Amino acid sequence: MKKEVIIIGNGIAGITLAVLLQRKGISFTLLHRKEEKPPFALGETLPPSAMPLLQQLKLLSVFEKNAYLKTYGYHSMWGSSRVTDINFYHQNLFKNGLKINKHQTLEALRSEIKEHMISYSKGFEIIHEAHGSTVVLAKNEGIKIVQGKILVDATGRNRAVLQKLNIQSTIHDELVAVSCHIPKIKHPKLTHEVYVESFKDGWGIVSALNETENICTIYTHKGHEILSRLKEVSQWKTALAETTYLKDFLVETEHIKFKGGNANSSVANQTAGTNWLALGDAAMSFDPLSSHGITNAVFTSAKAATTIEKKLLEADPDAFFEYDKTMKAIFEQYLESKNLLYRQETRWKDSEFWKLFF
User: Fold this and answer.
1) Element at 45 (helix H, strand E)
2) Contact 21, 28 (CB under 8 A)
3) Whole-angstrom Cα distance, residue 155 to residue 10?
4) CA-to-CA distance for 207 and 195, rounded, in angstroms?
5) pLDDT, tens digit, for every residue of 221-230?
6) Helix or strand or coil: residue 131?
7) pLDDT tens-digit profile of 141-152?
């Protein structure tokens, strides 16, 4: 099978790029790992700042149709013991964000390009040929071979393609997350369905998943002693006893779903080469405090689509170099903003978690 572009990974970044390439008439194949279990819902929220980008890319209707609800703001207790109401009404041309159903949104986007998707169950191999093309072997019961001019890493934080290309990454912190799905309750003192609160050992967020469930996520650094107290939901109340409102959302019930993982800020040391590039979390992954994870995936997909078009149709020799330069500039700007945000919280400057930022 010969295509101009081979995309590996079918999250928001990979699927969005595939949709944009299809609209441009650029041939591609998208390879993805066969899913064996349903994804853990994280209750992502798109901020109002993402709406113009989605509108420009003619993707807004897809995200709106597959949103749980529109969001008009959130509550935050950060840097002081007072709750701040961040209202979206005055912030943007769009007066709302979207609380999206990520799985449903992905399925809607995949339906546009599903005939170009190939799943693999036993990994993949990359072979670079002397004349510049790339061959990817997707290992299945029957091995499939795809040949292309450009290879794209859209495998998220795993950076599976970059690892095979021996491209290293720089990790800027050791932030980790522990999440659990809990029954939804309405807090008597809060109106929005997203609430963020910092505390001595890290910070947490409660966000609506749907009509009946919330997701609560606690962020701290790898190895912190609080992690041992977050293994069972019965211990969460104790672990969060000193929080103001976070603890109020915790409802003990059977069959709680848990998920843990890295939430650190990291960037690939190189995000593009002669005939490959990385996008989304594979290029650079953001701290969830930025709330720009999905926006980053969509934005880098749009940049990648334009870059690939320049490379293939205009034979621009500097297209991939400029892409790499842009990604690194964006990440540096993000790091500066993120660090300033953490330093706004000065109440526990000497605690194990917060002293890392001072």
Assistant:
1) strand 45-46
2) yes
3) 7
4) 7
5) 999 999 999 9
6) coil
7) 677 888 999 999
